[in-house]
Design a protein that fits this description.
The complex is a heterodimer.
Chain A: H1 2-14, H2 17-35, H3 41-52, H4 57-82, H5 91-139, H6 144-161, H7 166-181, E1 183-184, E2 191-192, H8 206-224, H9 243-265, H10 272-285, H11 298-321, H12 327-338, H13 346-350, H14 352-383, H15 388-407, H16 410-428, H17 434-456, H18 468-493
Chain B: H1 2-8, H2 14-32, H3 48-69, H4 90-110, H5 112-126, H6 132-154
The chains are: A mainly alpha, B mainly alpha.
Chain lengths: 512, 167
């Protein structure tokens, strides 16, 4: 089989000692930053972009793969041991996970999270290897009108579906699109939004934008609200599970995977919805419903598996279509472009070996995570006690270094500070960060497809609807945009349904 | 006058609407100033997308202003180390920004080792650490390590500045 032999070639590349070393570094680094508060996988990849510029692209992506899964795993460790989830995707894990830890079952909670992540990640990566080439086959037949429509869908879906306020999501998206406009227009050579400043002509470096919004914005925001009383970290030994825990965990792992992958693969995917669905399902199916809310192991196993499967799913549109749907994928996409690699369906044919090495290293990274993290869990827990002044000063230090080393211009640091202040403001007033980043990355590409479309149709707007896929996508877009109004109508006409979400779940209100 | 003042109190979010509107107007004016002859090969031209973006910004600005005046509020972001119970602590943020700006001013002249040391040291102090000597030593070590790490490991020569010839 073609997929199989390509994948084997990928393993051959990824298993060379040097690349294996990068995978180990990636996994360790990813877990460390996932555990550390204030740092996420997206920020880590952004900070490492300039450093990896000296590496071969394959090695860099193998490391990113490790960081990607490691970051997911680290996030769950924090939410179990601290009860203050750093990412929205681990909110659900914290509900039961922290209760288990408080009841002295931290070792079992971490074990079910680690093993569940491994199983879900492996199945998810296998699905990615099978589905991505199929999506590519379908995607190469698409023209500019369909691409334009699909990118519009991705932007709108991420903006309108995730987060608690659509309006603030759109405000963030618009700011991102505006940032993406800065620089020379690629078709006509006109300077846009450069204000006569020659340093702006090449546009804002995506590395600088990502580091500013994720790292500097976050550090400033945390500094303004730094918790003065240190959080209580629950001490933990080596994770292990008894026979009964295994029996109660394996079905939730598989069900969580089934929820996670499809949601991750959708343009508006994200891990929030599937982790939540998994939690609700496990609660309903459990033989021990009375334990839920007091530390039920199913409530950790299912959502953690869903979280990791969604992470694998997200890579499907990223690799097959060049469409990122979460922050880490967006930054990885920026990394592709900085290596001069054009993301999209051509990726598999033009950069086949790189892509398959990346997929192979996802399998390897997953396995390494299990191998490394079970014995190292107590070390990770210690990391949580790093003095906060060092942590946040370190983030600022490395953010500055990373942004400066791209072009060795002090001017980039001015932009870093200005956009960092923007990131601060967005966190203060509840503007989600993801739409902005996607706007910066996808904005110029959307504009390119729009202009190509109308060029083909000689300026006739009907050209936008010249492909059937485009029309289908626009119908979906219309439904997403009209959804709140339809929802209101249904509510007014029919008897109010009971809310599906338990009141104490802490999950975001998606209906807005 | 006083009623307006009380009406505006706690509505700092209107500033966000103002910013969105200002950026929207800026994008519009900038695009409007572009001179392009109509071209058969590029019917959309460089102006269309900026006009759409500017429209989106201005609509968001207006809707956000209405939303805030009606009592809507953006939800401040939480996190592991974030305690939203106390108000923004400007005594930490401003010195932190100061250390950052100092680095921008010094980096090309004094070099990364000096400016980076000051950046880390200043940030740690701003964030509340009081072990001056230990912090200072860590700062110098970090700056030196990154300088040589980037030079030897990655082939990126960070500016040596005043210490040119010594490093």
């Amino acid at each position: 089989m073609d997929v199989w032999s390509s994948l084997m070639d990928g393993f051959a590349t990824a298993l060379t000692p040097m690349n294996l070393l990068f995978a180990v570094i990636g996994v360790l680094l990813g877990t460390a930053v996932g555990v550390l508060p204030g740092l996420g996988p997206a920020m880590t990849v952004a900070l490492l972009l300039p450093v990896t510029a000296a590496l071969e692209p394959t090695s860099a992506f193998i490391m990113f793969a490790g960081i990607y899964y490691g970051g997911m795993f680290g996030g769950s460790t924090t939410s179990i041991l601290l009860n203050t989830p750093g990412e929205s995707s681990s909110v659900v894990t914290a509900i039961e996970g922290n209760k288990m830890a408080k009841a002295g079952r931290a070792a079992q909670a971490l074990a079910t999270a680690a093993i569940g992540s491994f199983i879900a990640g492996t199945i998810g990566t296998a699905l990615l290897a099978v589905f991505a080439p199929i999506v590519v086959q379908f995607a190469v037949s698409l023209g500019a009108p369909s691409y334009f429509a699909i990118m519009v869908l991705a932007l709108l879906a991420v903006t309108a579906v995730l987060g608690s306020s659509r309006l603030r999501g759109f405000a963030s998206l618009a700011l991102g699109l505006a940032i993406g406009l800065v620089g020379i227009d690629s078709v006509t050579g006109q300077r846009r939004l450069t204000f006569g400043q020659p340093l702006l002509v090449d546009g804002l470096d995506i590395v600088v934008v990502a580091v500013a919004i994720f790292a500097v914005g976050e550090a400033l925001w945390v500094a303004a609200h730094l918790r003065r009383t240190p959080l209580h970290v629950i001490p933990v030994g080596r994770p292990w599970m008894g026979k009964k825990d295994w029996q109660r965990s394996w079905k939730p792992w598989l069900r969580g995977t089934a929820f996670g992958f499809p949601f991750g693969a959708l343009p508006a995917g994200g891990a929030e919805i599937p982790t939540f669905l998994s939690y609700v399902t496990e609660k309903r199916l459990s033989k021990h419903p009375e334990e839920f809310g007091k530390g039920a192991i199913e409530g950790v196993a299912g959502p953690e598996a869903a979280n990791n499967a969604a992470a694998a799913g997200t890579l499907t549109p990223m690799l097959a279509l060049g469409l990122p749907t979460n922050a880490t994928a967006a930054v990885m996409l920026a990394a592709f472009t900085s290596y001069g690699i054009q993301p999209g369906p051509q990726l598999f044919s033009s950069q086949g070996p790189l892509v398959w090495a990346l997929i192979a290293s996802l399998f390897i990274g997953n396995f390494l995570l299990l191998l490394i993290n079970l014995p190292l869990a107590p070390v990770w827990a210690k990391l949580l006690q790093l003095p906060r002044p060092y942590l946040y000063a370190g983030i600022l230090f490395f953010a500055t270094l990373g942004a400066y080393s791209v072009n060795l211009q002090a001017f980039d640091l001015v932009i870093l500070l200005v956009l960092g202040a923007l990131g601060f403001m967005m966190r203060r007033f509840g503007l989600p960060v993801l739409p902005l980043i996607l706007g910066v990355i996808l904005g110029p590409r959307i504009e390119g497809q729009l202009r190509k479309t109308l060029q083909l149709s000689a300026g006739d707007p009907a050209g936008l609807f010249s492909e059937p896929i485009a029309i289908v996508v626009y119908i979906i877009v219309a439904i997403i945009l009209a959804w709140p109004f339809i929802f209101k109508l249904i509510r007014r006409n029919g008897p109010a349904k009971k809310p599906l979400l338990p009141a104490n779940s802490g999950a975001a209100d998606y209906s807005d | 006058m006083s009623s307006i003042a009380t009406g505006l109190k706690g509505r700092a979010e209107l500033g966000v609407a103002l910013l969105l509107g200002a950026v929207g107007v800026l994008v519009f004016l900038d695009a409007n100033g572009l001179v392009t002859p109509y071209s058969q090969s590029d019917p959309v031209g460089p102006k269309t997308v900026p006009f759409i973006v500017s429209g989106l910004l201005i609509i968001c600005a207006i809707l956000l202003a209405i939303n805030v005046l009606r009592g809507g509020k953006g939800e401040a972001e939480g996190g592991e180390d974030v305690d939203l119970a106390h108000p923004a602590d400007w005594k930490t943020v401003l010195p932190l920004a100061g250390a950052f700006i100092l680095n921008i001013l010094l980096i090309d002249w004094a070099g990364w080792v000096i400016s980076g040391t000051l950046l880390f040291w200043g940030s740690v102090l701003a964030l509340g650490s009081r072990r001056y000597i230990r912090d200072g030593l860590i700062s110098v070590a970090l700056a030196l390590l990154t300088f040589y790490g980037f030079y030897l490991g990655l082939g990126i020569a960070l500016p040596a500045g005043l210490l040119e010839g010594i490093l």
